[in-house]
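Tokens in:
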């Protein structure tokens, strides 16, 4: 048993699998300090994050990782994976522009990362759009991702292993709350932390659910912000792999803080993109600790309409 986390590892657990059962939860007033601690650790370690992702998202993903303090590597050739992937700190797989060749690289990278004990994160983009996508994601699940992050429709489809017909491509047809039970089920069956993005983000280990309400609606008008969040999650779990629920929740909330700070200076989506990256780079302890405390002191763990800054609460 790990004395810090209280988690007992499963003796025969596959390499790279995040241990279950539930992590001990932080007290409400400690989330801001924890978010800062993880961000500071990320900045000090500058973890190498390999991203096999779609062609639309590479630029924003790389810049978000750099702004947070990580080192991005957008390497996807199957011929390089055996040499490169064992040395990364985490792997992010995004199926946005899926192809047979790309899928082969994803499978090889996920298997290599797992064998090397490196966590990897799956973003099942538009999994409901085709049988090919669904079958690809179901195959990747067998390689034991540490975290799965998607919108509500993606999580609902993946949890049921059946496509949701008439889905809207990469957009969700459901609210994030609609997918909470599906996310818990998917987490239990896959062994992964599951994050459902939306107006409120829900993160679960299959037992407890943590909610994070923050960000700004304008990020929906910037392509690849969801992809960038998934890459940021990979960076955070690379520095805290045994507390992946905490790391995932903090990554989502920190991105939301940066978005809200950025929107204070932005005129629209184009300038928000720039200011979001600047705000993420400039985040400091005072911002995170004060505004997490503000939420819990005045909010008593409830949802306060639209919070200005990061808000994490326990969903029961």
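Residues out:
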């Amino acid at each position: 048993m790990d004395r810090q986390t209280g988690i007992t590892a499963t003796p025969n657990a596959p390499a790279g699998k995040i241990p279950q059962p539930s992590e001990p939860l932080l007290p409400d007033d400690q989330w801001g300090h924890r978010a800062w601690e993880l961000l500071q650790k990320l900045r000090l370690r500058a973890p190498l994050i390999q991203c096999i992702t779609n062609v639309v998202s590479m630029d924003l993903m790389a810049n978000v990782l750099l702004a947070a303090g990580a080192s991005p590597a957008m390497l996807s050739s199957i011929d390089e994976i055996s040499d490169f992937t064992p040395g990364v700190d985490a792997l992010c797989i995004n199926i946005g522009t899926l192809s047979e060749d790309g899928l082969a690289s994803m499978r090889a990278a996920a298997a290599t990362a797992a064998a090397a004990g490196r966590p990897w994160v799956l973003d099942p983009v538009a999994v409901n759009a085709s049988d090919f996508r669904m079958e690809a994601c179901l195959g990747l699940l067998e390689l034991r991702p540490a975290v799965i992050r998607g919108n509500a429709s993606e999580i609902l489809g993946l949890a049921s292993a059946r496509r949701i017909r008439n889905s809207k491509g990469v957009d969700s047809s459901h609210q994030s709350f609609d997918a909470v039970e599906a996310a818990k089920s998917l987490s239990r069956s896959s062994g992964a932390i599951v994050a459902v993005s939306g107006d409120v983000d829900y993160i679960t280990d299959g037992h407890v659910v943590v909610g994070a309400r923050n960000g700004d609606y304008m990020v929906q008008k910037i392509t690849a912000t969801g992809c960038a969040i998934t890459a940021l999650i990979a960076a955070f779990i690379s520095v805290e792999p045994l507390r992946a629920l905490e790391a995932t929740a903090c990554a989502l909330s920190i991105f939301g803080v940066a978005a809200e700070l950025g929107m204070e200076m932005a005129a629209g989506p184009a300038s928000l993109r720039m200011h979001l990256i600047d705000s993420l780079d400039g985040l400091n302890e005072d911002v995170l600790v004060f505004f997490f405390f503000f939420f819990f002191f005045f909010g008593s763990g409830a949802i306060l309409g639209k919070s200005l800054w990061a808000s994490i609460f326990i969903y029961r």
